[in-house]
Specification:
Distance between the termini: 13 Å
Radius of gyration: 20 Å
Structural class: mainly alpha
Number of helices: 10
Shape: elongated
Oligomer: single chain
Largest sheet: none
Strand content: under 5%
Helix content: over 70%
Length: 266
């Protein structure tokens, strides 16, 4: 048996072992979240800085149809930070590939999918931290959401679905590129995507060609759904659109990442 050939799975049920392997890799990624002080610092500082800039620098100049700008912009800031932080998953995957960590894991009798699942779990934990900080900072700045406890649960659910989708897409990027630096470009893309949606201004204020793109890209229905849930307004069709976007992206990227992982690891 070669170094890059995993030993046979021990008897007792592949499914049970896959779950145990995933739990182990998830624990590894969560520990890395709290050990990577620089990445955690960015996840903590970026949301607060963006919120302060948009509320105090741009808030007085932007009109959002009678809605206080802080009420309008908080969902956009949450989504922007979630997307940017989730995009870092690809860098972590590419780093493991470049450093040979994946080869070490492949020499062990573990489920290959568990390695990717661990990275995605770390992304979910990191984003829960940053989203909580955005909410806390916004409340201190005067944001007063009208969401019920059930609506708050729905907000968390939608946000986790979005982070899950972006994390898996980022994982695909991390498996396609050859270095963590190359994977970093996806993070900048996700940093700017909410600007081209309804995150910070109504799409109706954009030129027609840009509005067509803004209304039909995934961050817009997700942002609109979060905003409606938080402010106690009707969600409308944006809720279904947000769930469909996230489900399709997660399924497609998850399958693609699993296939790519098997090919890259040979």
């Amino acid at each position: 048996m070669t170094l890059t050939e995993a030993p046979p799975t021990p008897p007792g049920g592949a499914g049970r072992h896959a779950l145990a392997d995933s739990a182990t890799m998830m624990g590894r990624s969560v520990r890395h979240v709290f050990r990577a002080v620089d990445a955690l610092f960015v996840a903590v500082l970026l949301p607060i800085m963006l919120l302060l800039v948009f509320v105090f620098v741009f808030g007085g100049a932007i009109r959002t149809g009678g809605v206080r700008y802080i009420d309008y912009v908080v969902p956009g800031v949450i989504l922007l930070c979630a997307g940017y932080s989730a995009a870092a998953t690809g860098q972590a995957v590419a780093r493991d590939m470049a450093l040979g960590v994946i080869d070490r894991f492949r020499s062990m009798p573990i489920a290959r999918f568990s390695v990717l699942a661990g990275h995605v779990t770390g992304s979910l934990v990191r984003n829960l931290i940053s989203a909580s900080l955005v909410v806390a900072a916004a409340l201190l700045l005067g944001w007063r959401p009208a969401a019920s406890p059930l609506a708050w649960l729905a907000v968390v659910g939608v946000l986790l679905l979005y982070v899950l989708a972006v994390s898996w897409v980022s994982t695909v990027i991390g498996l396609l590129v050859r270095s963590p630096e190359a994977a970093e470009g996806f993070g900048f893309f996700m940093l700017f995507l909410p600007y081209l949606g309804s995150g910070f201004v109504p799409t109706s204020t954009m030129p027609g060609w840009l509005q067509a793109f803004a209304d039909n890209q995934p961050t817009t229905p997700v942002t609109d759904t979060l905003r409606a849930l938080l402010m106690g307004t009707p969600v409308g069709s944006s809720g279904a659109a947000a769930v469909i976007w996230c489900a399709v992206l997660t399924a497609a990227a998850g399958v693609t990442a699993t296939i790519l992982f098997g090919r890259r690891a040979r």
